[in-house]
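Troubleshooting log. The previous structure file for this entry was overwritten by mistake, so regenerating from the original sequence record. Sequence copied from the archived sheet and checked twice against the printout by T.R.
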Amino acid sequence: MYISSHKIQTSYFPYFLQAQKKNVENMNSRLKLVMKSGKAILGYKASTKALRKGKAKMILIASNCPPLRKSEVEYLAMLAKTQVHHYSGDNTDLGTACGKFFNCSVLSIIDGGDSDILSSKE
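Regenerated output below.
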């Protein structure tokens, strides 16, 4: 019986994870800059109010946001012609990225400040 000593090519998978991690870190650094120099509203209720008034420029939705709430926010954002970004982390990660010690499933950005989060969509 012949046993070959070929290496299995599994080196592509870690690169994908590294690229995804860089995108998350990039979004987290942009969020941190928005919280420091811009204006953002945390929470579903306040974000929907900002969408209805037309103040919100971008909406971030956590990955574990309930489907009905997510579709409602997406619908309001579509009516207000506002960008929607589906944040890859859950609501705990989104709250932590904003520098808060609580969960946040919906975040509304009113003013980007020094960050380029509004101009670049990933």
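Strands lie at 39-42, 58-61, 83-86, 106-111. Archived copy saved in two places this time.
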